[in-house]
Design a protein that fits this description.
two-stranded antiparallel ribbon
């Protein structure tokens, strides 16, 4: 009985094309490296992270601020604060995902930051920040009267929490800076004030305008690397705020 030849195997079209184009076989895809999800600090409530640092700051107890219309203020009552938010326009759709605060404590500057890693952690953040404020607290900010404070007031109202901010005094350094330097400096932004009065020049600083994207990227499962830079930016804002307050105080 004659042997029937086996049917010829069809050539792989993709293999033929690779040979014609002198291409090497494609290496198998490698799994993408796991995203860096590490957030600084301690998780003090589900999704709420807390960091604290302390820097020596030898200064007197009282601040004489007649030159900016504030009279005399006890240093220990001052709490500098700054928020990082999901947008720059404000309104009920904007929330703070980070609240930073700095005060003089035990002979130095204590810096505390609250960061939420989930939307559900906002109420815990607001409650914690409220616990840092007392009836004698004097808030210190840069444009906080127009932006940070109204934004937080809105978030307290939407969370159905008591708003602690109206009971506090408030020093907003943007306004004295404008009165003194609007015709001297090109602008009165915080970065300009800290450079001109404190000699602070930021290197590799993340612009505040990029903070919303950094937080949203993290919520979507991305890396925390840029979000950590937001924390560094916020911390420098607070240190500069406190330095500028000393800079505008009346000479001893």
């Amino acid at each position: 009985m004659p042997t029937i030849p086996a049917p010829a195997r069809r050539a792989d079209p993709a293999a033929q094309l690779r040979r014609l184009l002198n291409l090497r076989p494609q290496a198998p895809l490698r799994a993408a490296p796991a995203a860096d999800r590490m957030l600084p600090g301690e998780q003090i409530a589900p999704g709420l992270y807390y960091t604290e640092s302390w820097t020596p700051w030898p200064r007197g107890d009282d601040l004489v601020l007649h030159g900016i219309g504030q009279g005399e203020v006890e240093r220990g009552r001052v709490l500098a604060f700054d928020t990082e938010t999901t947008g720059l326009a404000g309104g009920t759709g904007t929330r703070a995902f980070m609240i930073g605060a700095a005060d003089w404590h035990d002979g130095g500057l204590r810096l505390r930051q609250l960061l939420i890693a989930t939307l559900a952690a906002e109420t815990s953040m607001l409650r914690t920040f409220a616990g840092w404020l007392g009836e004698h607290t004097v808030l210190l900010s840069y444009n906080g009267k127009s932006y940070d404070r109204p934004l937080l007031t809105t978030r307290y109202r939407l969370a159905r929490l008591a708003d602690p901010l109206p009971a506090c005094g408030h020093i907003d350094l943007l306004h004295p800076m404008r009165r003194r330097y609007r015709t001297v400096w090109p602008n009165c932004r915080l970065a300009t004030a800290e450079r001109e009065l404190l000699g602070v020049v930021r290197e590799d600083d993340l612009p505040g305008s990029q903070a919303p994207a950094a937080w949203l990227q993290y919520l979507r499962g991305g890396s925390a690397a840029t979000l950590r830079r937001v924390g560094d930016h916020n911390a420098q804002d607070l240190r500069s705020l406190c330095g500028l307050l000393d800079a505008v105080a009346d000479p001893a």
